Amino acid sequence: MSDTHAQTVPFVRDTMLPPAEPPIKEAGAMRWLRENLFSGPVNTILTILGILIVWFLVSHFWDWFAHSVWNAASLSECRQIIAETWGEGARGACWAVIRERWNQYVYGFYPPALYWRPTMAFGLLFVALAPVLFSEAPGIRRIVLGLTTVLTLWLMVALGAPAAWLVFAAIVLVGALAISERHVSWLLVFSVLYPLMGVWFLWGGSAWGPIMVLVGPVLGWIAWRVMHPLSGMVAVIAALVIPVLWWVGYAGEAARDAESIVSFAIPAVASDRFGGFLLSITIGISGIALSLPLGIVLALARRSDMFLVKSLAVIFIEFIRGVPLIALLFVASLLLNYFLPPGTNFDIILRVIIMVTLFAAAYMAEVIRGGLAALPKGQYEAADALGLDYWKAQRLIVLPQALKISIPGIVSTFIGMFKDTTLVTFVGLYDPLKSMSDAVRASTSWKGIYWEPYIFVGFIFFLICFAMSRYSMYLERRLARDHR
Amino acid sequence: MSETITRPIDRSHMLVSDEIAIDIRNMNKWYGTFHVLRDIDLTVHRGERIVIAGPSGSGKSTLIRCINRLEEHQAGHIVVDGIELTNDIKNIDKVRSEVGMVFQHFNLFPHLTVLENCTLAPIWVRKVPRRQAEETAMRFLEKVKIPEQAHKYPGQLSGGQQQRVAIARSLCMQPKIMLFDEPTSALDPEMIKEVLDTMIELAEEGMTMLCVTHEMGFAQAVANRVIFMDQGQIVEQNEPREFFNNPKSERTKLFLSQILGH
């Protein structure tokens, strides 16, 4: 025992300590096991219990998976093969159904001769997404675009695409690869044009239709430029109203006239031929692309100081969130026809996309509102104090931060919406999970097959949703600004 | 008394002109039923350096936040640089682009680099070409002595550095008036000095400044007028020497004895 305690002795440090390396963490499998699985009696019992449960589950399903059959023309043939190989009474999975009905699961009832068209549209989708999703990651972008180019062209050749379209796809894909090395932002032009292009590739018909749709925003832009010097408000209204007038009143006629003068059409495919993952992905991607901007607008509207704007947003969001999606889909398929003038042919997939978008947008709005509310008030004040007007403050300061905060919620909404696309089965569309599996079972050769189609479709959905989830985590990491 | 101001002050450019920068007449403000600002009359001439002091809740922050309309006043008139603040958004934005503001918690934009923080408003509000805005920003970052941090994000800087960036960000808009809302209250003592040095330099160049601060050393060194507020009213104002050595009101005496005492 000493009566001079360290703190009571005068002390001056004459040399400052340099920073030292942190101690190396002790490693080793045994140590890990001891610390994590067998650290005490309770923990040991739980570990053993867990192992037993896993063993119980695996032992039940193992032989079924192990006895998989990949090559058979019918369920009875499958069963015969299993019985011959593993003896009478053995169970086994018959994946042959996926192999045989693969095209149906992917393309639905799309004309087989035109399978290359959705394939090309899907490939070009990645060109459209690359500058948006991977704008600051040239390495990943190169890999994605490179793989897309090879796979798309290979599949198109395999599916018998015409030479002219092969050349077109090759030029776009290789061109995108080259442009993305230097000027990624130029690819955004393609991203903007892609929706119309994609619609044309999928549904076919005259190219003048999408072109005339494109004229709408151009007219709106001209109107804005002409009116802007006179009055900002009038210019905004004109820029919004004129395209709508054009689409409703003149675009269809103009497209028909143009088509009769210079024909530029590819074979049309009706909406009832769509099905399987083609349908899910078409609805899912459209819904995702449309619901985000709509959700942002709704979230801003709900936080607006203007009573009317705010009330409309609240009513819309609360109404849509309070109604099941299936109810909205029934409205889309049945009720909408009563309200529209007789004779209007409003495509069922388009109607479903609108409903799915509205549904997802209402949820999106609430997710983004959470992000907006999480921003410190000081950010708004600093933007105000610098003289930024409302829209500039939102675009440059508020939304980039609020959206970043909301990424997990936004992606959750996307994932939920993508899975909800299977509900279109209730309005007679061929979703991959229910309708397609029913269609497969309706044939005599696959009558009675039950688990395999569901597991397969579930697995594909899992892959896509898991990819979205991983992307959101990558994006969060990339946008982190706290410590670097 | 604060020992943070050690160097002699160059007063050659500290000139107060006859021109009126801010004119506040009979201004009143309420939060709900609470009367925060009562009959405020204040005229600020170009080149003046005014320190506003007072106990917390006395309305001093609210007063300077009314000058760029972060807070709305309900009665009376505020004229800034010849423009009256009304509900007209155009006037408000015009005033805001002429009046710089520095906040207690810096309020830098965390998703932008230091340089982007400084060039954002010049590019989007003043429509200055990017290259030119960046040159100006670098000049002001050099002035606040952190040009080497230009490409870092605010989260990587210390509090004092962040506040100096915030001052540079305001200066990049080339404001005619600078408002400081307790700029050193969230800082460590070591960092207070670096921020005050920057503010003193600004004063030496003749900037019109209104500072809400508890740094009485700063007030004595550079202010030409000290305003004492309590309960939403201006209780006393005077030139610093008189204010500190010979306060008139009992409330001021009490306040000064509390913050300068020991």
Automatic annotation (TrEMBL), chain A:
Compartment annotation: Cell inner membrane; Cell membrane
Domain ABC transmembrane type-1: 277-472
Keyword line: Cell membrane, Membrane, Transmembrane, Transmembrane helix, Transport
Pfam family, one: BPD_transp_1
Principal cellular location given in the protein's record: membrane
Keyword match Cell membrane: yes
Record membrane topology: Multi-pass membrane protein
PROSITE patterns: ABC_TM1
UniProt cross-references to PANTHER family, sorted A to Z: INNER MEMBRANE AMINO-ACID ABC TRANSPORTER PERMEASE PROTEIN YHDY, MEMBRANE COMPONENT OF AMINO ACID ABC TRANSPORTER
Family: Belongs to the binding-protein-dependent transport system permease family. HisMQ subfamily.
Protein name: Amino acid ABC transporter permease
Lineage: Bacteria, Pseudomonadati, Pseudomonadota, Alphaproteobacteria, Rhodobacterales
UniProtKB/TrEMBL annotation, chain B:
Sorted UniProt keywords: ATP-binding, Nucleotide-binding, Transport
PROSITE patterns (UniProt xref): ABC_TRANSPORTER_1, ABC_TRANSPORTER_2
Domain ABC transporter residues, every copy: 22-256
Claim: ATP-binding is one of the keywords in the record: yes
Listed InterPro entries: AAA+_ATPase, ABC_ATPase_HisP-typ, ABC_transporter-like_ATP-bd, ABC_transporter-like_CS, MetN_ABC_transporter-like, P-loop_NTPase
Keyword Transport appears in the UniProt entry: yes
The family this protein is said to belong to: Belongs to the ABC transporter superfamily.
Protein name according to UniProt: Arginine ABC transporter ATP-binding protein
Organism in which the protein naturally occurs: Paracoccus acridae
GN (gene name): bztD
